[in-house]
Amino acid sequence: MLYCGKMGLPKALARTIRATRANHALEHATIEQLLRRHNYRLRVVGRSFPGGFDLYGDLGADEVADAAHDALARLQGGEHHLAVSPYCGTNLAVAGIFAGLAGALLLRGKLSVGHFPKLALVGMGAALAAQPLGRMAQEHVTTSAADAPGLRIRAIRRMVGWPFPFLRVDTTWNEPVLPQPHPSTT
Fold first, then answer.
1. Which pLDDT belongs to residue 1?
2. How confident is residue 21, by pLDDT bands cut at 50, 70 and 90?
3. CA-to-CA distance for 50 and 18, rounded, in angstroms?
4. What band does 130 get if pLDDT is binned at 50, 70 and 90?
5. Cα(72)–Cα(65) distance, rounded to whole angstroms?
6. For the sheet containing 44-49, what is the strand order?
7. Mean pLDDT to the nearest integer, 132-157
């Protein structure tokens, strides 16, 4: 069970979070496979949710299916590094939070034109410092390669969306069954 402070999350919420984190890991691994196949000359964006993930870009359903199945096999085979991506929005979010906090600490409620150079410098420093923290946030918060064994790919579908079509990778996730201790025979 996932815990938030001293209070455990409700089981349904914990399951939703774990499924989303597993799908986020699979999304990253799938995009990495696609990038490798296109010599890293591909523009693609992903968005994960408990039932799978969406990919936005000039992609065919067959190539996404091949990449997703390959990515899942690799994650389940122990290649957990594929769950973390340098292109993930988590990196941007962590950098933005750190830059904002650094700016707020610098200003302490007082803004003047003279602060802008200092704000820029502090913001850039915070963004650089946040890079390894973005990776750690992915590893421990937003993705979970450890939950990949419970994932199964159900379907890859072309969806009609605005402003352009996208591909949806539908998955199912089953929480791994933990071995039960054997009753003592003594």
1. 40
2. very high
3. 8
4. confident
5. 11
6. 44-49, 52-57, 166-173, 151-159
7. 93
Q: Which residues of 118-148 are buried (b: 16+ CB within 10 A; e: fewer)?
A: ebeebbeebbeebeeebbebbbeebbbbebb
* Closest to 18 measured CA to CA, from 167, 157, 130, 171: 171
pLDDT at 56: 94
Question: What's 139's DSSP letter?
Answer: I
Domains assigned to the chain: 1-84+144-174 (3.30.980), 89-142 (no CATH)
Q: Rounded to whole angstroms, how far apart are CA atoms 90 and 2?
A: 20
Q: Is 48 left (phi over 0), alpha (psi -120 to 50) or beta?
A: beta
| Segment (H or E) for 135 | helix 116-137
Q: How many CB atoms lie within 10 A of CB 75?
A: 27
Residue 167 structure tokens = 């591909």
Q: Report how far apart, in Å, the C-alpha atoms of 19 and of each of 9, 13, 112, 174, 176 are.
A: 14, 10, 46, 8, 11
**Which residues lie below 8 Å from residue 87, measured CB to CB, with a gap of 6+?**
31
What does the DSSP assignment read for 107-125? HTT---GGGHHHHHHHHHH
Q: Is the pLDDT of residue 178 over 60?
A: no
pTM of structure? 0.83
